[in-house]
């Protein structure tokens, strides 16, 4: 059985698709058979970030409605050969994602893959609910600002009450906090919430902190998951996050502007 | 002079939502003579309590025939004893039509268990009823997240985790939050004025006890972000630190 991981946030523009692309690429790079599904029907972006937009023939909705088989719709990544992408439909209504249809596709994928990463649309409407419904784990992407934290809190509540695990009374969805667009300088100036602030409010374990970086934007525009920019701090931060997701212990990095002062600041309680 | 919604036009009244606690009479069957005897008996046990109170007739356990329900007789009998029947709760369509005919208000059926009003040792209570065991508190172990609502309709609510901004916790009795209280907490929602709110860190958007409330802005000056209890004293919410209580 595959582990089903939803990447979600409530708020838009915080880095869900960037995170889905990098986490799924990172998992696949380690040899795990991974598929990443774009649930954002009508506003599909994942194919752009994964640089496969010119190879989309059939999509998720086609498969649900029986117009194509999974094999026809799955796109194999050109860089990492254990990674597949199931693109969203750009033309259909999001209601085309029915609970039964999604379940059928996920069950079928479950037999072939180790990891299923679900890239959720923003909001708490149907598409977002479908993306999280079958999840075993959730990566909640949050920016260090109050509105994003509030929306993440909302989505955590929904994970606890509306996921399949919640409805069936099974163990709750395992929650991970991924703080993205983190800028230690701005935190120091009091313009952003600190990691400690966000952890304190949301009270879920921290999977990683992704520093705000021009590299992320450049990589997106080139259709490259930023985790493949192995020399960049954002790429390494995602690499760490994937390692932690797989149970490895990794020290958190990139949380301070001066790498030297990192420990002194952490232990002063700043 | 207070400002009204439309400048220059002073409205005659304003509608506000209110929640009051009321006595309901749970009717099992209706017989005029027996009704009056029972009523007189109940009143004699606590004459002051029943003087001029509003009363709801609850039909949820009514077992008699609908045709036997004579609301005019019920209202008349009650009025002779200074009790004002104001409406009915529950009941089927026929019964509710009869009630409307008697100019009574129609309330939706409540599925919460009403506490029996103890009018002291009743001499001729037919059978010794089981003592009212205290309603167990509702205990929540997980954070109450933004957009979630937790409701303890009968007793206390105990939350062993944060109540987040945008979340709401409500209880008929006390509300305990053993974590930061960042959302809304409403205690004594059926009108229990003795109910209190306890929290490890007061960061609430709103705190209410028996309908009296304070919003975040008015809570900042006293005990903000500390462990406090909040109680109602002479219609005012009073915040006191827990360690000095």
From TrEMBL, chain A:
Endpoints of the signal sequence: none
Pfam families: AAA_31 (PF13614)
CDD domains assigned: MinD
InterPro entries from the UniProt entry: AAA_dom, MinD, MinD_FleN, P-loop_NTPase, ParA/MinD_ATPase
Domain AAA: 3-154
Annotated SUPFAM superfamilies: P-loop containing nucleoside triphosphate hydrolases (SSF52540)
Keywords, alphabetical: ATP-binding, Cell cycle, Cell division, Nucleotide-binding, Septation
Family: Belongs to the ParA family. MinD subfamily.
Primary role: ATPase required for the correct placement of the division site. Cell division inhibitors MinC and MinD act in concert to form an inhibitor capable of blocking formation of the polar Z ring septums. Rapidly oscillates between the poles of the cell to destabilize FtsZ filaments that have formed before they mature into polar Z rings.
Quaternary structure note: Interacts with MinC and FtsZ.
Protein name: Septum site-determining protein MinD
Natural source organism: Marinobacter iranensis
TrEMBL record, chain B:
Region (Disordered): 109-136
UniProt biased composition (Low complexity): 119-136
Annotated InterPro entries: CAP/MinC_C, MinC, MinC_C_sf, MinC_N, Septum_form_inhib_MinC_C
Septum formation inhibitor MinC N-terminal domain location: 13-84
Pfam family, any one: MinC_N
Annotated SUPFAM superfamilies: Cell-division inhibitor MinC, C-terminal domain
Domain of life: Bacteria
Subunit structure: Interacts with MinD and FtsZ.
UniProt record similarity statement: Belongs to the MinC family.
Entries under NCBIfam families matching the protein: minC
Descriptive protein name: Probable septum site-determining protein MinC
Organism: Marinobacter iranensis
Classification of source organism: Bacteria, Pseudomonadati, Pseudomonadota, Gammaproteobacteria, Pseudomonadales
